[in-house]
Inverse folding.
């Protein structure tokens, strides 16, 4: 199986990629004091008949995992849904490799801002800033401005030291 070129991959990421920061309320630890825990995922979702594209991307990057999402239950319930395949990069180590790969990439869309903010959050988290009030609030504020600022119903409790 062939690899894809870096330029092709950058264009594909602009169209199909998603730099996602989940602000999870379900993370529980006695040492974690904040309402939201940042979980970072780079992901690409495609129809399952495009699995080969994700396999080429994975071979090119040499990181990430591919999962299949079966929507047969949704179809049984009358939803017109097609099965998907998903490429994910979730580990901090692999995300740092991905950041290096994208370092001098030339983006043409607003996806570049999401990428920059995504890696800001990653680096804040790696440096343990998410464990301090100021760093945690900075991460939440950055995340709220990502992906077309599409979290209008999101509410955050303000903490003080």
């Amino acid at each position: 199986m062939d690899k894809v070129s870096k330029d092709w991959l950058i264009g594909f990421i602009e169209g199909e990629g998603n730099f996602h920061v989940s602000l999870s309320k379900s993370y529980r630890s006695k040492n974690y004091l904040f309402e939201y825990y940042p979980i970072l995922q780079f992901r690409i979702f495609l129809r399952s008949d495009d699995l080969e594209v994700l396999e080429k991307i994975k071979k090119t990057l040499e990181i990430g995992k591919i999962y299949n999402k079966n929507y047969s239950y949704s179809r049984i319930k009358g939803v017109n849904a097609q099965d998907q395949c998903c490429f994910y990069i979730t580990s901090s180590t692999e995300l740092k490799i991905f950041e290096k790969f994208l370092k001098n990439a030339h983006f043409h869309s607003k996806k570049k801002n999401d990428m920059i903010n995504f890696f800001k959050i990653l680096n804040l988290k790696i440096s343990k800033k998410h464990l301090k009030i100021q760093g945690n609030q900075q991460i939440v504020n950055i995340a709220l401005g990502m992906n077309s600022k599409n979290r209008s119903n999101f509410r955050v409790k303000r903490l003080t030291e």
User: Anything to note?
Assistant: The mean pLDDT is 88. The first strand starts at residue 17 and ends at 24. The chain has one domain: 6-149.
